[in-house]
C-alpha cells in the first residue's frame, strides 16, 4: 500500500518514527588523521568500547583487524578526498569478536576547513532482518487475495492493497483521505465505523465480522468477513487501524447448500421412518403428505389413479385421454381455507389432458411451475372456485411429482407454496422426487400385498433395478434368484455418479416376505438419494445406518463400492457384509479384506474403507450370503468355491453369472443377489 493521507498535515513531520530506534543507528566522527573525534552511545552499544576508551584512538588500530586495515585506510582516504561510501565493513568488538557493520559515510569540514569523516553505522544483521521483513510484508500485502486497508485515527483511508482495489472496484487514489461511506455507500457503513471506533478505543481486535452489501466492483449483494486491528508504534502510540476483508459469498452459499443437504437427508431419514409403516394404501398416502408438510411445502395433496385404488391395476394415461384420480390425502402446514381447494379425500376427480396433473402422469416427469399466475391457477385447480381459494391463500409456486414405482405411474404428489416466499427450485424437485419415489414404492407394496408367492416374487424383482446397462468403461451383469420358500430382502443397484464414476450396492435385509422387501426398498431409495450427493463409501453407510436404526428392529448388511476409472481404483466399505471377490485379468482371484463394520441398524460403530486397484480386465463380484452359505456346511467352503470359480471366469459376464448360480445355488434356500463388474480392456 503506497498511498498515505491524513487530516493533520503536520502529523507526518512532527511524529517521531520507530524505525531508527529499531535499527539503533550509531554515529562516529574521525579527524583528518584517522583519530576518533566523536563517539556516540549507540556505537558504544554496538562495539562495546566506551567513549573514554575510544576517543583520540586511531580507528584503524582500535577497531579494525590487521587483515582488514589496508582496505580500511583505502576507504578512509577516498572519503577524505570527498567521495561517499556505503557498504558493510567488519569491525572489532571490545570482546575480540568481529561484527559486520553497515556504513553510510561522508566528509565534513570544520570551521578551519579541516576534513572530518562522519560514519553512520548499524548492525548489518539487523538491517538484513528489517529488509527481509519489509520485503515479506510487501509481498504478502500485494499478492494476498485478502483485501487489506489502513485507516487513520479519523477513519479515513490511508492505503489499500491491490486485492481490496478489486473488491471495492475503486482505485487507491480515488479513496485516499475519504471515509468508507463517501466511497462505498452500498455497505453497512454505520456498523463498519462503529467497529473501527471500538477497536481504536479498546485496542482489542474484532475478527470475522460479517457485512452484506454492494461495492462499486459488484452490483450484486455479497457477503464479506472483516477483521479489525489497531496499529501502534513500538512506544504504544496509536497510528490508526488495519482492516482485512475477505469475500465469503461463495463460502456462505456453500454452507447454506450443505445445511440444505443435511436438512434434505434429515427429511429422507424421517421419510424412511414414517412412510410405509403399514401396507395400507391410504395410510401410506397420509404419511407421505405429512412428511412433506411443512418441511418442503405449505400444502400437499396425494392423488392416485382410480384404476390402482379400485382394481389394483395400473392403467397408463396416454395421448389426449383425461386422467381419473382418487384423492387419498391432503395436508397443510398451517390453518388455511386453501386446503378445500384440493379434491376431497376419497372422492374421484377427472382432469383433462391440458391440466398439469394429467401431464405429470402422462409423461411420468415432474412439473415445476416456479411462479404461478392467475392463468396457471386455472390449470392447477379442479374448478374456478378452487383456483380462487388458492389465489386468496397466496399460492405462488407449484410442483407436481409422479408417484413412479417400477417404471409405472401410480398417481401424483402435488405441492404448493403459499406462506413460504421462496419458489420451488431444482433442489426441491430432487428431494421431492426421492420422497415421491419412496412413497410410490410403499403404495405399490400395498397394492401388491396379500397376493400369493408369485405376487411377492414380482414385488421383490420390481424393487431391484432393471438389468443394469453397461456403464462407461464397465461391463455389468446382475442376477437375482429368489428362495424356493419365502422371498427375502436381498438387493443390488448400479448408480451412475458422474463421468468415469459408478456406484455399486449389494445388500441383504434380515427377514422374509413383503416386510423385508419393503425395508429393502426404503434402504435402496435412501442409498440412491445419498449416492447422488457423491458421498464417500463409509459416510454413505453411516447415513444408511442412521436410517436403518430409525426403522425399528431392522438389521441389514450392505457393501458399497465406488469405481473410479480415471484413477483406476475402487473404494469399498462394508456394513457386516461378506467380502467382495476381486479377480485379475490374467486369472486368479482373492477375497477383498474390507475393514470392520457391523450390520446397518446396530449403530455406534464407524465403517472402514479399503481402496483396491481395478486394472483393465479385472472383475469385481458383490453378492449376498445366499450364494455361498449352506446349512450344515462351513461358510469358508462356499467362499473358497466362489473364489476358485471366479479365478477362471469366462470372458462373458452373463455366462459367468449363470455359471456361478448353477454351480453354487441351483435350488437356493435363501435369496441370492449377485453383481459382477468387469473393467473393459
Distance between the termini: 59 Å
Mean pLDDT: 85
**Count of extended strands:** 26
* Beta-strand content: 25-35%
- Percent range of helical residues: 25-40%
Instruction: Give the radius of gyration.
Output: 40 Å
Which descriptor suits the 3D outline?
elongated
Q: What does the main sheet amount to?
A: 6 strands, antiparallel
- Number of discrete helical segments: 22
Outline the low-pLDDT stretches.
1-15, 450-455
Structural class: alpha+beta
Q: Write out the strand line-up for the largest beta sheet, numbering strands in chain order.
A: 13-12-11-16-15-14
Overall description:
By secondary structure, this protein is of the alpha+beta class. It has 22 helices and 26 strands. The strands form 5 sheets. The protein has a 6-stranded antiparallel β-sheet with strand order 13-12-11-16-15-14. It has a 5-stranded antiparallel β-sheet with strand order 2-1-5-4-3. Strand 4 and strand 5 form a beta hairpin. The radius of gyration is 40 Å and the shape is elongated. The N terminus is likely disordered.
